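Hi support team,

I'm filing this because I wasn't sure whether my run with guanosine-5'-diphosphate finished correctly. The job status page said complete, but I'd like someone to confirm that the output block is well-formed before I use it downstream. Pasting the exact inputs I used:
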Amino acid sequence: MFESLSDRLSGVFERLTKQGALSADDVKTALREVRVALLEADVSLPVARDFVKRVQDKATGQAVTKSVTPGQQVVKIVHDELVAVLTGDEDPGKLKIDNPPAPILMVGLQGGGKTTSTAKLAKRLKERDGKRVLMASLDVYRPAAMQQLEVLGAQIGVDTLPIVAGQKPVDIAKRAKQQATLGGYDVYMLDTAGRLHIDEVLMSEVEQVSAAVNPRETLLVVDGLTGQVAVEVAQEFDDKIGISGVVLTRMDGDGRGGAALSMRAVTGKPIRFVGVGEKMDALETFEPERIAGRILG
Ligand code: GDP
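And here is everything the job wrote out:
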């Protein structure tokens, strides 16, 4: 399917192995391949361009070590740079949820995996961190979504806020806060309504909810297979409501994960977790090394 970057580069560099240093021309040729590989891995064009420029500066003039081929050396430089861009100052698995009850707002488009990720994360917080978690669905437009969260809650042994028909999202959020406070919960998670596309109504509703509870974390859940769309969604949510991190779902699929790089580059916000399946345990802490390897193929 995809030709790996290492394969491409070893072809490009076959005739250059005897040279002592990477010349500007060698690097240019190699970087053309790097750019194609990034685009095939779903990295957006401006991000791929910027990235290639950074690598170019690092690679030009670098001495070729004896033990590796120039192709391998460029792949290493690209790999290290990918990891550098994907790694932030923060520890992806550590959420800011110290003062109980800490609100976590889950946002995203419909079908991206928001409800599933809410429950997966609740399970993780309960089991790994020993937190008492309350979940509430604010999706008043789709009663099935509210029930879905309730079913998942029962399955993983995490409480959900009782459903009251006819309440507005902001009022449900306030009720969740109250129940979390009175009930001595450490964390309450708000699963907001998704839409098929970003629209003003959705955004202003999420803004209102955010203002009402002042979330400690606002996590955007996006489908890692949607490439450029995922990046646009991340940018828009970050501009409008400010996200603190990203959960990238469907990374068990055969996508190459380039959206992770684009999102990090565009929003500067960390990818925190990765969804790797439909089961409740299929949530992993984001590891830059693994995504970098995947992007390179
Ligand atoms: P929401 O509309 O954003 O709340 O999306 P859901 O949480 O209902 O998820 C939509 C579908 O995607 C469900 O069938 C989930 O089981 C599935 N799903 C969610 N996350 C993942 C994931 O990481 N990998 C896979 N393979 N499926 C997922």
